[in-house]
Amino acid sequence: MSAAVSVSPSALLERGTLILASKSAARRAMLENAGVAFEVRVADVDEDAIKAVSSNLDAAALAVRLAEAKALAVSRDEETAWVLGSDQTLAFDGGLVSKARSLGAARERLKAMRGKSHQLHSGAALATKGQIVWSGVGTVQMRMRDFSDAFLDAYLSAEGEALLSCVGSYRLEGLGSQLFEAVNGDYFTVLGLPLWPVLKELRRAGVIAA
Fold first, then answer.
1. What is the dihedral of CA 202, 206, 23, 7, to 10 degrees?
2. Is the Cα torsion angle 27, 32, 37, 42 positive or negative in sign?
3. How far apart are CA 111 and CA 162, in angstroms?
4. What is the pLDDT of residues 131-149, one digit of tens each?
């Protein structure tokens, strides 16, 4: 487990210690921009193992299962804190899409999704004292445009290996926005966190001011 990364606290909003169990820069930025004080501890979980024993779950439920596993992994070591876990899954063409292992694989995946729709699920879970107290998921329907091979090559060159950390090989907050022609759902969910439900639960739990 990595060392904690402290985020400048907000005396007005902070009501309890919150830990984000994720290394995602996008999730961190969402909470920072919302004025939420938190620390970061990366959860040590085997995502592939969880997926292997969760074949009975659909993509949305799997996103929640992964989020819960991350929250619990940190909460067991930080029992006095509130721990927020989150994860994303992508459903396409009847199957589950995982992170690409190479830019070549990312290229083939984006070509397969070109001109078609897929569903992106962002699961979240809040744990304290080693127990899950809340979980939820947001789903977004996304349709890629029929982009050219030339654009795809330029996109991969510009974004580079950073895409390998993204489940769909794109970041909507960057050049990846040009891959799409329509997105039906919440923007924060695309970035990796169903932010509105999370903030509602943090208020209910007294972690941030109501």
1. 130
2. positive
3. 18
4. 999 999 999 999 999 999 9
pLDDT confidence band for 152 (50 / 70 / 90): very high
Catalytic one among 48, 58, 87, 93?
Answer: 87
Q: Smallest Cα–Cα separation from 123: which of 164, 69, 180?
A: 69
16 pLDDT band, cuts 50/70/90, is: low
146 flagged as catalytic: no
What number of residues does the chain have? 210
Q: Which two tokens stand for residue 103?
A: 């830019």
Burial-class residue 146 by CB neighbours within 10 Å (0-12, 13-18, 19+). Answer: exposed
74 CA to centre of own chain: 17
Report pTM.
0.87
Query: Rounded to whole angstroms, what are the CA distances from 132 to 67, 106, 135, 165, 170?
Result: 10, 34, 7, 26, 30
